Amino acid sequence: MSESPTKINLLGLSPTKLEDFFEQMGEKRFRATQVLKWLHQQGASSFDEMTNISKALRARLAEMAEIREPEILLDKVSKDGTRKWVIRMDGGSAIEMVLIPDGDRRTLCVSSQVGCSLDCSFCSTGKQGFNRNLSTAEIIAQLRVAIRAYGPFDPSERRVSNVVLMGMGEPLMNFDNVVDATQLMMDDNAYGLSKRRVTLSTAGVVPALDRLREVSDVSLAISLHAPNNALRNELVPINKRYPIEELIAACNRYLEGLNDKRVITVEYTLIEGVNDQPEHARELVKVLRQVPCKLNLIPFNPFPNSDYRRPSEGAIQRFKDIMLKASIITTVRRTRGDDVDAACGQLVGQVEDRTRRSQKYIPVVQEEPVHGKSQRL
Ligand code: SAH
């Protein structure tokens, strides 16, 4: 996105903020509904397209505001249909986003920050350090880019059926912008996705989880990755501040009052010899009994300069079987898009880094899905 500091980017205004914006202009609040539809359902990129708005108002809008989108630096389709984009944001930094088709679902994995401050030991985004938060407009622009990649906007088509905030960054460390973006995703005048189809994934910023519940009922995934605090402190350092028992308690508070039988998705990256042993599985059962949840096992995806390895298929299956025997709903996430470096934990964003990486990177070739059945994110 090229910067234009004097103009407000309308892509970044939540439904309420867009209403406020029109009110401040001395206009009726319902203008917000019209403009939301133009922006997010018709994919308008100029005010001239907004034909149910008077020319005079369009001219005023063009003076004060803009519709600013990122530049697409790279657009790659994997042999399994997974599509990855690298897009350039304000100030020149780049982020990655991934669309994962799976039957009639097309799940967009969206980034919320450039880099990440949490430094989880198995995640390549964390290894880059933290650059900055994405604005609401930059988060929403990822959806627009993905929708438009398949032709002119057509609200009757659900080109993106699900959004997961599982790309680069920790969404709860960019609280306001992420909340505004998820509101746009779920608003009927914008992308109209149900709250079950928008999932925020967090490493467990406990106070922010409580705040989130006050303003949103988006679906929740937590990155657990370890069944006890000693191990989780190593893998997910934020655990030292908010240990497992506090995180589980926060999840239960989050579900309270939702009244729709929703559960938390627990993500657990399986790393050979680190957290993939039967005793880890048995300990995990005890933790997961404390909260309504389903478990998503994610075989580790390697990246350069990491000593971790993906467990064998046998070890993955053994872990899964222990969970299933304990009646924990468990799926194994298939590795998707690894031929275009689009798999979980491989997103890095910087084009320069990627170039260097393609020279160093030895992909783990995996012809068959880890788990035969198609994976629900
Ligand atoms: N910060 C948020 C959102 C980032 S997505 C969070 O921690 O939830 C993070 C998810 O990506 C993790 O839960 C994990 O499932 C996955 N992930 C990260 N690095 C990975 C790797 N190297 N291999 C497999 N999955 C990884």
Q: Ions, cofactors, ligands: which are bound? A: S-adenosyl-L-homocysteine
Q: What's the name of the CATH homologous superfamily of the largest domain? A: Aldolase class I
Q: Tell me about the biggest sheet?
A: 10 strands, mixed
CATH architecture of the largest domain: Alpha-Beta Barrel
- Tertiary shape: globular
Q: Order of strands side by side in the largest beta sheet?
A: 3-4-5-6-9-10-11-12-13-14
Question: Assembly type of the shown chains?
Answer: single chain
- Determine the structural class based on helices, strands and strand pairing: alpha/beta
Could you tell me the mean pLDDT? 88
Number of strands: 14
Low-confidence stretches: 350-377
Taking all Cα atoms into account, the compactness measure Rg is 21 Å
How many domains? 2
CATH topology of the largest domain: TIM Barrel
Organism: Marinobacterium iners DSM 11526
Binding site for S-adenosyl-L-methionine: 169-170, 201, 223-225, 301
Binding site for [4Fe-4S] cluster: 116, 120, 123
GO biological process, one term: tRNA methylation
